[in-house]
Design a protein that fits this description.
The structure is a single chain. This protein is an all-alpha fold and 464 residues long. It has one domain. It contains 16 helices and no strands.
Length: 464
């Protein structure tokens, strides 16, 4: 076992993580800006459309994240192969991931085009139903391209080329901004569409499809990827490799799904408190999603470096990078939280001029300080565990914490099920407080488990 990490080692790891994390962060901010712009523009269109966007967006994200989470299995697989210098195998794994994406696209399309079962479970108010259905059906046609692009992004991140993803994501954002304005508010012969207009801006002009096609072109033409031989020949699905992807990807997809549905079902339940409360929740959730992009980017960058180190049998380096990545994410989360609390009134006012919605959002945004710190701890640690190809136990931790404590506790508090819950813990605040506590439990549990996993890897390596 090597000596304790020095400050020089820490700075070296932080620099490596930052070098990969900043392109990921810019790309992820571009992606989340799609939602932020949708929320801000629709919020200025009408409170009803903003509430419908919150509901429809929650359903879409649940389907999208659950399916793309399975495809992220390519990242640790390709990362370890790249670290081990087994480049030709990366091409085969990528082809298999594209086959898997095709199957998942069919499943996702059906769920989005026929969303009535999910909306019925949510007891969606009649005023929101039709607009939410229109929104989801438009997005269903862009889902197959989004899944193909996820294969591209997983591979490029695994081999340390996140800028190739960033450029495409920023380009898509620059196209979407003017078209969003056009379709939401109308003009030049197009009627004001409100919430469905932002979905149309993404799908009608083929942003999703253009990004996917350009991504595949990069993989086939860019010199760096030629040793992988991704498109040098056609192949059918190889069940052994498909099973390996699914064995790793299904728990990952479930983890993503559990994490997102803990928020999605929170939105579905909060919709029962009325459109004003749901609109306030949508603003708070949007802010939380923006803050989430930094620890997510650090997690992806750390995971890339850890998986490559593990592939090269550098287990000490993998543990050091893991520890410093987690610490880096948590420190930045505290800084972000302080800034958000100081700027809270101005940030919320930028979303909507509606005084009632602002009042509903103010206490929720205050809770985000603790929520974001816990979120940073859990997501960074989860990504690092995925680099170790460990996914099953983290999924169990997620299920117990986020569904049990988060959703279960939120339901008990929010609806005052047992009676006697203080007024300040009821309603949307009860759900947010319970969800924050669940993220804290998940983060601590994942961190403890990572220490066990990384120690076991070290001991095994030392006995060889």
């Amino acid at each position: 076992m090597r000596p304790m990490t020095t400050s020089t080692d820490m700075l070296s790891d932080v620099r490596k993580i930052a070098a990969l994390a900043w392109p990921v962060l810019i790309g992820q901010l571009a992606v989340i800006a799609f939602g932020v712009i949708d929320t801000a523009m629709v919020g200025h269109f009408s409170a009803t459309d903003l509430a419908a966007l919150g509901l429809g967006g929650s359903v879409y994200i649940s389907v999208y994240i659950g399916l793309t989470g399975i495809l992220v299995a390519l990242q640790p697989i390709a990362g370890q192969l790249f670290g081990a210098g087994r480049e030709s195998e990366i091409g085969e794994e990528t082809r298999q991931a594209l086959w898997l994406a095709a199957v998942l696209a069919v499943i996702g399309f059906v769920l989005l085009y026929f969303p009535e079962p999910l909306l019925s479970f949510a007891k969606t108010p009649p005023a929101l139903h039709d607009r939410t259905v229109d929104y989801l059906r438009i997005l269903s046609f862009g889902l197959p391209a989004s899944l193909a692009f996820r294969v591209y992004s997983s591979l490029t991140n695994a081999v340390g080329k996140p800028r190739l993803v960033m450029f495409l994501q920023v380009g898509g954002l620059l196209i979407k901004i003017p078209l969003n304005t056009w379709f939401i508010f109308g003009g030049f012969g197009v009627p004001a569409l409100g919430e469905p207009g932002c979905a149309l801006a993404s799908t009608l002009i083929l942003i999703n499809w253009v990004l996917a096609i350009v991504g595949m072109t990069v993989l086939s033409r860019f010199e760096f990827f030629r040793p992988f031989g991704i498109f040098t020949h056609f192949c059918w699905p190889v069940w052994r490799r498909q099973l390996a992807l699914l064995r790793l990807g299904i728990p990952m997809g479930l983890s993503y799904l559990i994490e997102v549905t803990s928020y999605t079902f929170m939105a579905l339940f909060i919709s029962r408190f009325g459109m004003t409360t749901l609109a306030g929740h949508q603003i708070a959730g949007n802010l939380g999603a923006v803050l989430y992009m930094t620890p997510l980017s650090i997690g992806i960058a750390s995971s890339t470096l850890v998986s490559q180190a593990l592939g090269a049998e550098r287990h000490d380096d993998a543990r050091s990078i893991s520890r410093h990545g987690i610490g880096m994410a948590c420190v930045l989360a505290l800084v972000y939280g302080v800034i958000l609390i100081a700027a809270r009134p101005h940030v919320i006012a930028a979303y909507t001029p509606d005084a009632n919605v602002i009042a509903a959002a103010m206490p929720l945004v205050l809770i985000i300080f603790f929520y974001h710190f816990c979120d940073a701890l859990q997501i960074t640690t989860a990504f690092i565990l995925r680099a170790y190809k460990v996914t099953l136990v983290p999924t169990v931790i997620y299920a117990v914490a986020l569904w049990g404590i988060g959703l279960g506790g939120g339901y008990l508090l929010g609806f005052d099920v047992g009676g006697g819950v203080p007024a300040w813990l009821q309603g949307a605040r009860g759900f947010w407080i319970a969800n924050s506590a669940s993220l804290g439990v998940a983060g601590v549990g994942l961190f403890i488990y990572w220490r066990r996993v990384s120690t076991r890897h070290l001991l095994v390596a030392q006995t060889r």
